[in-house]
Structure formats: C-alpha cells, structure tokens
Design brief:
Layout lengths: L5 E2 L6 E2 L5 E2 L6 E2 L5 E2 L6 E2 L5 E2 L6 E2 L5 E2 L6 E2 L5 E2 L6 E2 L5 E2 L6 E2 L5 E2 L6 E2 L5 E2 L6 E3 L4 E2 L6 E3 L3
Parallel strand pairs: 1-3, 2-4, 3-5, 4-6, 5-7, 6-8, 7-9, 8-10, 9-11, 10-12, 11-13, 12-14, 13-15, 14-16, 15-17, 16-18, 17-19, 18-20
Amino acid sequence: SGTYTSVSGGEENKATGQTSSVSGGSKNTAQGERSAVSGGSQNTAYKFGSAVSGGNLNWAVAEHSSVTAGQRNQAKGEFSSVSGGWANQATHARSSVSGGARNMAQNVDASVSGGFLNKAVGRYCSVSGGKSNFANGETSTISGGIGNKAENKF
C-alpha cells in the first residue's frame, strides 16, 4: 500500500499509489498517485490523477484520464475520457468517447459520441454516432449514418 491510501470496502481491492483510494467493489486497483476507483470490478486507475467510477475491466491509463462506467473501456491519453459503453478507447490527449461499442477517438481532441465501430482519427475531428464511420483529417465531422468517411487533405 502507498502512503495515505484508503480502501473503504469490497473484496480484494488495492490502493497502492500515494494518496490513492478504492471505495468498494472487487479486485479494483488504484495504482497511480492521487488515483481513485469508486466501485465495480477489476478496474484500474494507473496514473497520477486517474479515475474509474465503476463498471468492469475498465482502465484509466494516462494522467488525469477517466472512465465512468461500462466494460472493457480504456482512457489512454492525458485528460482523456470514456463515459461508458463497451470496448471503447480514447487514446490521445483530451480525446473522448461518450458511449456505444468498439468506438475509438485516436487523436488529440478527437471525439466519438456513440454508435458502433466508429473512429475519429484526425485532430479535432468528431463522429456523433452511426456505424463504421471514419473521420480522418483535421476538423472532420460525421453526424451519423453507416460507412461514411470524412477526410481533409491540406
């Protein structure tokens, strides 16, 4: 255990980062300094200031990253967030995925609001929903639909 850590309840939880905490659930780990896991099961907050609120098998991997709920979600970029859903990833700084399944926000300030198999790959781009949409290129936007591509070539 780290210095000033706290495990409030649950089963097989660990708070190993300095001033980290786990509030409950099972097999959760708050590893980063000032990291927190509120509940759920098998969730991990790895880095400084990272947090997982609940769900199952969620990872907040980068500094100040967060996963709110869902299953198998990963927030990998600094200040990135995944709000819920299944198997979503926010991989770069300030990227976000709000929900849905198997969506990826893969660049700085990229976002996916929901849907299935959507990718926001360009900087500052967004996909609001739908299925298998691909926003690549700076500031590209897709509102929805199936199999759409938005690419800027500067």
